[in-house]
Design a protein that fits this description.
It contains 14 helices and ten strands. It has 433 residues and is α+β, with helices and mostly antiparallel strands. It catalyses: a 2,3-saturated acyl-CoA + A = a 2,3-dehydroacyl-CoA + AH2.
Length: 433
């Protein structure tokens, strides 16, 4: 078995192009049209951004998270990881490259479980970058715990009627449709009685009560909706996948979404390292450069080590996904990446902020946004604490308890076994003395 840490030259050329393109053409969008990534394009924004999307398509880098049969390139998760490291530098980059969350995960669900009619109506516009979507799962009273779900859908003739509340449905205010996860059979275990529906946002009864913002954003002007589903009637054809099979579909979405977040976080953390290194080489205090201070050198070394380890782990996880083509088989590694990701971004961004002094804590530098983003990543797609439980259970499956009084590595017991195994040699050794 061979090991190789190099990317093939042809794809590396594409990565080099993407790096230059993102820095020169895409990052300026973050400064001019901040927080407008998920606002449908019109007017001048369309004139500016559509040509950028076309350049990405010409490079064969559009929607790389999907296979050729779905309008992607079929590069696989490992190559997507290398590209996402670059895209993570910019909020607009995933939009320009056709691989933005939550639309990537939603597209995967529809691709795997949607009917031909559903794919034509919802998937193709997502792939074309002409439509946004929202994943409506979390509920106010129970967070992401499905056992606490109260939103219900009941049959009424050939229709389904949905009632309940959903919280933190990201991008709902600009989405064309929602994927709603609801209980359809409360008399069976929740993982067997939950279903998904495709619901256009203009359906009567879809009431966005508040657009919750993150810290620092204006009240009720955010992108994470509190939604009241008030007698929302949809036809049976709105059912996404089989009735009662929402959990299987959700893992298709969530597994990919979690590792894609980790991929992009690498690029964002690297950006913080870049800013930190530039700063410490540029500033002097107490008679020498910041770069010559041992504490600052510790910041740089710790940041490099954290990021290098995290990057290699994420790349290895992406390689396993490509190898097995089954998110379930890589569940432990995906959950581990999800656990590590917020800490890596938080720690590196905090150090970078610190070496920038007073400037670092202002809104003229991006560090607090990164730190806040790390906190969000610790909750998005499941809290870190839940993923730690998942990892622990997965790790323990490979072990057995000891039957005896002492641990298997108890030295006196092992010494006795070793002496018994080598008894003939020990007798010869004694006889020769």
């Amino acid at each position: 078995m061979s090991w190789d840490f190099e990317t093939d030259p042809e794809y590396q050329e594409k990565l080099d192009w993407a790096d230059t393109f993102v820095r020169n053409e895409v990052e300026p969008l973050d400064l001019v049209w901040e927080h407008q990534q998920f606002v449908p394009l019109d007017g001048l924004r369309r004139k500016a951004i559509d040509p950028l999307k076309e350049q990405v398509r010409q490079q064969g880098l559009w929607a790389t998270h999907l296979g050729p049969e779905l309008g992607g390139q079929g590069y696989g998760q490992l190559k997507l990881a290398l590209l996402n490291e670059i895209l993570g530098r910019s909020s607009w980059a995933p939009i320009v490259f056709g691989c933005q969350a939550p639309d990537t995960g939603n597209a995967e669900i529809i691709a795997h479980y949607g009917t031909p009619e559903q794919k034509a109506r919802y998937l193709q516009p997502l792939l074309d970058g002409e439509m946004f979507s929202s994943y409506s799962m979390t509920e106010p009273q129970g967070g992401a715990d499905p056992a606490q779900f109260r939103t219900r859908a009941v049959k009424d003739g050939n229709d389904w009627v949905i009632n309940g509340w959903k919280y933190f449905s990201s991008n709902a205010r600009t989405a064309a449709f929602l994927i709603v996860m609801v209980v359809t059979d409360p008399d069976v275990p929740v993982h067997k009685g939950t279903s998904m529906f495709l619901v256009p946002t203009d359906t009567p009864g879809v009431e966005i009560v508040r657009n919750v913002g993150l810290y620092g954003e204006p009240m009720n002007d955010g992108t994470h909706a509190l939604i009241h589903y008030n007698n929302v009637r949809v036809p049976h054809e709105a059912l996404l996948g089989a009735e009662g099979q929402a959990f299987a579909a959700a893992q298709t979405r969530l597994g990919g979404g979690r590792i894609h977040h980790a991929m992009r976080t690498i690029g964002l953390a690297q950006k913080a390292v870049d800013m930190m290194c530039e700063r410490v080489l540029s500033r002097e205090t107490a008679g020498s450069r910041l770069a010559d201070k041992q504490t600052v050198q510790g910041y740089i070394a710790d940041s490099y080590a954290q990021l290098a380890q995290f990057r290699l782990f994420v790349l290895n996880t992406a390689w396993k996904i490509d190898k097995y083509n089954d998110y379930k088989k890589v569940r432990k590694d995906i959950a581990t990446a999800k656990i590590v990701m917020p800490t890596v971004l938080h720690d590196i961004a905090w150090r970078a902020m610190q070496v920038h002094g007073a400037l670092g804590v202002t809104n003229e530098m991006p560090f607090f946004r990164m730190i806040h983003g790390a906190a969000v990543m610790g909750l998005a797609d499941g809290p870190t604490e839940v993923h730690k439980t998942t990892v622990a259970k997965q790790v323990l499956r490979d072990y057995e308890p000891t039957d005896g009084m002492w641990p298997t590595e108890w030295i006196p017991q092992k010494q006795e076994a070793a002496r018994a195994k080598l008894a003939d040699y020990l007798e010869l050794e004694v006889g020769n003395q």
